[in-house]
Amino acid sequence: MRKLPIDFNDAGSGLKREQYVHTDLHDDTHEVQDALPRTDNADLHTRIISYCESFKDQMSIVEMSLSEPPLCFSCCPLKGDLLVGCKNKLVLFCLKYLVINQDLTLLDFERALILHIDNVTPTEIAFCAGFIAVSTDLDVLILKLEPVERDASNTEPYTYKISAPEKFTDEAVSTLVPQLEADDFVICQKPVELLGEGSKECGILISLESKGLANEEFFQVQYVLYRRFAPDLSSFVSSVEETKLHSLQLLPMYQTGKLTNLHCAKRELLSLFCFFSLPHIGYLYAVGNLVELISTYQYSEKSQQAVLTPQFLHVITSNSLQCFTVRCSAAAARDEDPYIDTTLKACPPVSLDVCALRMQLFIGLKAISHFKNHVILLTKADTEDITERRNSKKTDSAKLKTPPESEPGWNLYIVNTISTIHLYKEMVEYSKIYTNVKTESCIHLLSEAHLLLRAALMDPSLMDTEEREELLEAFRESCAHLGDCYSRFDTKDSHLALPYYKMSGLSMTEVLKRADSVLGDGTQKYEKGFLFYLHHSLYEDLNEELSEELAAKVLQIFHLAEPSQLPRVLCSPCMKNACPQKVQRMILVWGFVAEPRLLRQQTKRQIVPTEFAIHLKKTRPGLLVASILALHENSKIELDEADSFFKVCFFNENAIPQLLVDFWEALLVTCPKQELLQELLLKLTSHYVWRLSGMQLPDTKPLKTTEDLINSCCHYGLIFPWVSFIMSSVSLPDENYPEDLSKLQSLLCGPSIDITSVHPFLEPLPKDSPTGLSVHVLCATRVGEYEKSIDKLLDRCPDAVIPYAQHELKDEKRALWWNKLLPELCKRTRHAGDSYPVLISSLKETLSVIAMELELRDFLNVLPDDGTAAFFLPHLLQCSQRKLAT
After folding, report:
1. Which residue in 274, 302, 545, 685 is a FRET match for 329, CA 20 to 30 A apart?
2. Of the residues 755, 781, 808, which one is the last residue of a structural domain?
3. pLDDT in tens, 471-499
4. Under a CB-based contact definition with an 8 Å cutoff, are residues 442 and 456 in contact?
């Protein structure tokens, strides 16, 4: 930290000549008076030549006169536009670039818009990318200016007014105030928080007055956030001055500086955040795509001012500079990447508790500012004794103060904050003390370090390849540290070990070696986070082949933790180098393939299980299924023989045991030949239907869930969203019952099944139940009977009509929206009933889609002429305007 003496009287002394561009901004005029007149081309050319000759040693000044005294102002960091706050109004000046020639471009401002805000006197304003934040002593209002099209023939300025209902105005108070003596009562309104469209109810009237030229765009205003506070009277403060808001700020984060982009120059807004503070608590909101409170900050002392950056919040009190962590990078990461919270990627949550990083003592702090890694502090050293100053608070106002021009003790400090990499390394080193003591503290500290690196990498000014590569290396290292934590600690978020290890770039070999170094000799318990990582890494189609030593290590891990998974583990491509002699119990699979008589015997042309096979059925059912599957793949047992084998294992040749179903499913995963494939699909379909129609439960727990089959078998497809919508309102009696249903639905949604061949097997399912409805509509859809499916859904489950249409009525089926769905909805809405609200909502959505798809003439032609749609004309007009806007 270094003190810098600065002489303010010497500012600008090196300038030889000045150029003034004067802009007179009264109500209806915009006059530009400067050394480069805009009307006389000859004179302009002469002055431009003169200007170019002395370009290196002159300064251009743009002067903007205001009809009212300005109270505050803000400059947009994205576009450079200027917003000036006056009493009851905000004036917007747009930055213009006047291109004189290829070597000379001048800057100018043009008054474009006036926002009239009734009964609001702003104390602070912030402006960024069309978002406007306004604060008074105890209120904050955030608005968004949106450009709209206008009639090209209309060249007159326009006025746009929006009136918000005064919902929160206390009528009793407003009528009582004139009758009360101001010295006897303090009238305080209740605190209010309104988000999004709900903030229109704040009761503040806003009107827009355009002052731009004919070719300029129109604006409309959108309410984003309104927050009202009550004065803090708990400390017996004397006035609102002691409790008023301060430090209003809009912080943008940009698309530039992505983790995968090394050369990005253009800044595109990604996320926007708003910060404001009371004396003892600060508030941070996300106000971009989603409006929500991200964090609150409790200060240990009364704050005077604060500045927000993508990495930190710096707050000054009378004698200290405090630094807090922020969650902006966590929110921006989720705006940038929709896959951030999946098995591919992860990021610490926005809801992570904020931390106070450090506090530095200063004397007489008055103001704070920030630039990159520098914190600028303005202080006023007080010569009187601190104790005396505290005891003389009541008489301060009566003392004669020295004029500001001659007051001594003012100092300006520039504090260089620690570099991101250095601070990251400190936090990682400090986290080691919590490794074996406090799990959550260790994860929290490493998450803070991770977010610091994220924020640094999202900085659009980060163009240095060497610096960026250093940050990326630290970022990958932080992902590895978090992966270690989630893999070895038993936490509710242990599954995050997988995405963090993937983001670290570590191979499975490197992760296994890290686990050995962390867990010691391998005798310790492997937690579910590490097993979850191994499961996914082994079952994915990876090119990595583990060494024989590490493959044996993996088998040992699963032998201790999940021995039932050993058959699947051994089938992984990563385990190609595993030694069969080190597979412990799994060695029997190889023995069974080499010598099938260990499991089966043939008596009187019938295959029967051995006593050992019966034992495996009870103790290792997965091993038994894997063995029979291996025998079948090696052509040592036919499919019908395997069916008979499992039936005899359960002493009932007429029933189908669950292990036989497990065998069929496992065989389907191996992608059999086409003729065997359809046979298996018929077997599984008929069995699922038999269980569902008779409410039969499996005799043993299935070895594979629907999710397992979808992830490992190409014949099981993702269940369509509208099918899940139908089933979401159904309460099924047993957990195994919906598993059979979801497997059947997944097969019908898959690419391999022949619907026409399995359709007869689906008849036992009742068509009036949600289960039967989902299956029958699936079949009808797969064979192209879309109109029939729509009728079924409207009759039985109208809630699912719109999800069905959004998923199915695409491309060449798009016309069914207006040829089938619209007439049906109009017809059914004429008959009031329990489904009337659902039908009305579906009709509105249908009209929205049609309005965006069809031209206005075609749109009107498809509307029924019986007057049914007349009720929705305001909605239709809005849809049409939205189409024109896009």
Report:
1. 302
2. 808
3. 999 999 999 999 999 998 888 899 999 99
4. no
Do 717 and 830 lie in one domain? The reply is: no
H or E segment to which residue 86 belongs? strand 82-86
Position 522 scores a pLDDT of: 45
CA distance 280 to 303: 6
pLDDT digits (tens, 9 = 90+) for 50-98: 555 555 556 677 788 888 899 999 999 888 899 999 999 999 998 888 8
Q: Tell me, yes or no, whether 832 and 709 share the same domain.
A: no
Tokens, residue 683: 């077997």
- What's 225's DSSP letter? E
Do residues 718 and 796 both lie within one domain? yes
**Residue bearing tokens 């003591």:** 437
Q: How far apart are CA 737 and CA 732, in angstroms?
A: 7
Closest-CA residue to 289 (of 192, 200, 199, 196): 196
Our count of domains for the chain comes to: 2
**Residue 224 pLDDT level (bands cut at 50, 70, 90):** very high
781 and 844 both lie in a single domain = no
Assigned token pair, 210: 């355009």
Which pLDDT value is given to residue 58? 60
Residue 633 has what pLDDT?
Answer: 86
Which of 326-340, 394-408, 533-547 ranks highest by mean pLDDT?
326-340
Summary mean pLDDT of the chain: 79
Classify 279 as helix, strand or coil: coil
pLDDT, average across residues 176-202: 68
Q: How confident is the model at residue 582 (pLDDT cuts 50, 70, 90)?
A: low
Q: Whole-angstrom Cα distance, residue 791 to residue 446?
A: 55
d(CA 684, CA 661): 7
- Percent helix, strand and coil across the chain, each rounded to 5? 45, 20, 35
Q: What pLDDT is recorded for position 173?
A: 36
- Which residues touch 73 (CB under 8 Å, ≥6 apart)? 82, 83, 84, 85, 125
- Mean pLDDT, to the nearest integer, of 206-216? 70
Mean pLDDT along residues 208-235: 76
| Residue of 204, 191, 62, 178 lying closest to 119 (CA atoms) | 204
- Supply the range of the domain harboring residue 743: 674-808
Does residue 731 share a domain with residue 689?
Answer: yes
Which residues are within 8 A (CB) of 668 and not within 5 positions of it... i.e. 6 or more apart?
677, 680, 681, 684, 709, 713, 715, 716
The candidate with the shortest Cα–Cα distance to 563, out of 553, 572, 571, 555, is 555
Distance CA 424, CA 416 (A): 16
**At residue 468, what is the residue type?**
R
Instruction: Indicate if 744 and 826 belong to the same structural domain.
Output: no
> Closest Cα to residue 319, out of 248, 258, 377?
377
Q: Which two tokens stand for residue 567?
A: 């058959």
H and E: helices and strands count for the chain = 30, 28
Contact by Cβ (8 Å): 285, 303: no
Contact 689, 764 (CB under 8 A): yes
CA distance 414 to 411: 10
Could you tell me if residue 91 is inside a domain?
no
Q: What average pLDDT score do residues 315-337 get?
A: 91
Q: How many CB atoms lie within 10 A of CB 744?
A: 25
Q: What is the pLDDT of residues 410-435, one digit of tens each?
A: 889 898 888 899 999 999 999 888 87
Sorting pLDDT into bands at 50, 70 and 90, what band is 18? very low
DSSP state of 769: S
For residues 779 and 839, state if they share a domain: no
**Shared-domain flag, residues 799 and 820:** no
Radius of gyration over every alpha carbon of the chain, rounded to an integer in angstroms: 36
Domain end point (choices 750, 773, 808): 808
- List the structure tokens of 47: 């002055």
Ramachandran angles phi, psi of 52, nearest 5°: -65, -35
**In the prediction, which pLDDT does 50 show?**
54
In a domain, 858, yes or no: yes
785, part of any domain: yes
Confidence (pLDDT) at 884 = 66
Q: Is residue 693 part of a domain?
A: yes
